[in-house]
Amino acid sequence: MSGVRQAPASAPSLTAVPVQSDHDAMRLISVLDRVWGGSVGSSHLDQGMVIALAHAGDYAVLFEHDGEAVGAGVGFFGPPLDAVLHSHIVGVVPEVLGRGVGLAIKQHQREWCLERGVRTMTWTFDPLVGRNAAFNLRKLGARAERYLENFYGEMVDGINSGQATDRVLLRWRLDRPSPAAGPMADAPGVPVVPWLVEDADGEPRRLTPGPDAARVSVHVPRDIEAMRRSDAALARRWRTAVRETLGAAMVGGGSVVEFSATGDYVVERIAG
Predict the structure, then answer these.
(1) What single string gives the DSSP state of each residue in 129-144?
(2) What is the pTM of this model?
(3) Hey, where are the domains in the chain?
């Protein structure tokens, strides 16, 4: 597939370039380093690994606009083999953020998988990054499957350094249409009770929804990445608060049924 179809009108035209050489691999790594603020010794992937994954038939693709590398994606097959692709990393350079490039890459991954008979994709994301939650859960219609505490351990890139790497594992059914924008699950008459909110000082504040609250909300900051730069300690307090609410609910069998426009996870809890 030489290009990405179905891209939004606002998105720049993209060309998908499968990794076929060490030069391609280094360009792909360079894109990811720009996205995550990587430096020598802190890249998420190394050249040999990217080449090996591509050679083995996994997903390693660079995305260009007018000959310039603007995005990249790397994924590999997971169990059951040849039925699930785990999208390990997707990145879009800052210059084209908000222009539909990320969606175009996910669409390319979806088409690539379906052409090979693969109908499920998984990946992880940081639950504190609200724009990614909205994109994954609302726009794509992926489902939050598990909460993974400090999943990657300590990382030293420009985004994750000094912060625990809690992640939510997503599962995306590729043979089903993505939902229209709007609530993912509607349950008329079921109140949503706040569990984690943001106070006037920007601090996370836990409330007590009560054992009978079937649906609770967990708020995340509007821009956790800016907060990490301006007040890393506050960002860590948010990590702990989300882990002890959203994480605890999911570990206990609760399901994320929505991510609201106001930055709240809506979680359906298990009774009792």
Answers:
(1) -HHHHIIIIIIS--EE
(2) 0.87
(3) 15-173, 192-268
Query: How far, in Å, CA of 147 to CA of 150, rounded?
Result: 10
Question: From the CA atom positions of the chain, what is the Rg in Å?
Answer: 19
Q: Which two tokens stand for residue 65?
A: 């606009």
Contacts from 242-245 at CB under 8 Å and sequence distance 24+?
A: 242/127, 242/128, 242/166, 242/196, 242/204, 242/218, 243/147, 243/149, 243/164, 243/166, 244/206, 245/195, 245/196, 245/206, 245/216, 245/218
Instruction: Give the 3-state secondary structure of residue 187.
Output: coil
pLDDT digits (tens, 9 = 90+) for 208-221: 998 889 999 999 99
How do residues 237-255 score in pLDDT, each as one tens digit?
Answer: 999 999 999 999 999 999 9
Residues across the chain: 272
- CA–CA distance, 140 with 89 (Å, rounded to integer): 16
> Rounded to an integer, what distance in angstroms lies between the CA atom of residue 154 and that of residue 98?
29
Q: What is the DSSP-derived secondary structure letter of residue 13?
A: P
Cα→Cα distances 88→111, 255, 271, Å? 17, 23, 34
Can you tell me whether residue 186 is helix, strand or coil? coil
Architecture of domain 15-173: 3-Layer(aba) Sandwich (3.40)
CB-based contacts of 77, cutoff 8 Å, min separation 6: 58, 84, 85, 86, 118
> Sign (positive/negative) of CA torsion 160, 263, 217, 140?
negative
For 196-210, how does the pLDDT look when each residue is reduced to its tens digit (9 = 90+)?
999 999 999 999 998
Identity of the amino acid at 214: A
Token readout for 9 is: 């009108």
Beta partners for 65? 68
Which three-class secondary structure state does DSSP give residue 242? helix
